[in-house]
Amino acid sequence: MTDIVPTNGHTAGVTFSDSLLSWFDDHERDLPWRADDVTAWQILISEIMLQQTPVARVIPKWLEWIERWPVPSAMAADGVGEVVRAWGKLGYPRRAMRLHECACVLARQFDDEVPRDVETLLTLPGVGDYTARAVACFAYDAPVPVVDINVRRVIARAIHGRGDAGSPARTDLADASALLPTRVDRAPRFSAALMELGALVCTARSPSCDACPLPSCAWVEAGRPAVTTPKKVQRFAGTDRQVRGLILDEFRSATGPVERGRIDTVWTTDPGQRERALDSLLADGLVETTDGTLFWLAGEGGEAQGSIADRNASTAPR
């Protein structure tokens, strides 16, 4: 039997999966979350961390986390502020908040077990379509397609002959599903191999076509059409994201509530921008306050209230 990509009738054939899996046998990266003894919870952590964050930055943090929080209930027992503090500089700290919320749900409703099916996984806080499929596939060997930007790029080039993946579309999921080997036991490894090919060979800027194991590629056959979607260069220096990160650094290094004056010294270039960044942290629930003079990480309000009471007592007239 052959696998047909329904959107353009291209016949991928069994050699597509055979060639890719053979290549993967020789080139699979030794990533710690691919070890046989890694649990579904630990794979879930890796998938959340890997969103918009390079593998090299994730590995040391992931190793720390699975030792500290090997099961969801261990993380749930700690406050969300402690999880945000441990997140460090991975970026997009709301992911840490959602992961803590997910851990609480898993501990309370699922007896510390991560669900196996995509539909149930999608009900968990912070778990979207990609993450649900990745956990089902890589933790439980479910024969479901897993589509990230690397997979989308390979499909766009090899199957459709496009220079780039374009905007996210549900057709990518249908194409990836059609490419899955008919043997259920080979499907999960094929999904991992397809992602690996996009990460190592069919890269965005400098694809190594000479090293590609695929028997054919519509993009190469079409003369390697140029990328048509302009790539947005995300500036970081001087942005609200940078200021948010600098303010959060103050909270991570603090042993108690942070006074307003300390926050004011973090970013003096543009006080308005500093206020905007602080307001966004409050709106996201990453930081809390009661009176606007003392601030603390989410979930650490009990300790902060004690500090406020102590301060009020020390300043009260005698």
Automatic annotation (TrEMBL):
<keyword id="KW-0234">DNA repair</keyword>
<dbReference type="Pfam" id="PF10576">
    <property type="entry name" value="EndIII_4Fe-2S"/>
</dbReference>
<dbReference type="Pfam" id="PF00633">
    <property type="entry name" value="HHH"/>
</dbReference>
<dbReference type="InterPro" id="IPR003651">
    <property type="entry name" value="Endonuclease3_FeS-loop_motif"/>
</dbReference>
<keyword id="KW-0326">Glycosidase</keyword>
<keyword id="KW-0408">Iron</keyword>
<keyword id="KW-0479">Metal-binding</keyword>
<comment type="similarity">
    <text>Belongs to the Nth/MutY family.</text>
</comment>
<dbReference type="InterPro" id="IPR044298">
    <property type="entry name" value="MIG/MutY"/>
</dbReference>
<dbReference type="InterPro" id="IPR023170">
    <property type="entry name" value="HhH_base_excis_C"/>
</dbReference>
<dbReference type="InterPro" id="IPR011257">
    <property type="entry name" value="DNA_glycosylase"/>
</dbReference>
<keyword id="KW-0411">Iron-sulfur</keyword>
<dbReference type="Pfam" id="PF00730">
    <property type="entry name" value="HhH-GPD"/>
</dbReference>
<keyword id="KW-0378">Hydrolase</keyword>
<keyword id="KW-0227">DNA damage</keyword>
<feature type="domain" description="HhH-GPD">
    <location>
        <begin position="49"/>
        <end position="200"/>
    </location>
</feature>
<dbReference type="InterPro" id="IPR003265">
    <property type="entry name" value="HhH-GPD_domain"/>
</dbReference>
<dbReference type="InterPro" id="IPR000445">
    <property type="entry name" value="HhH_motif"/>
</dbReference>
<protein>
    <recommendedName>
        <fullName>Adenine DNA glycosylase</fullName>
        <ecNumber>3.2.2.31</ecNumber>
    </recommendedName>
</protein>
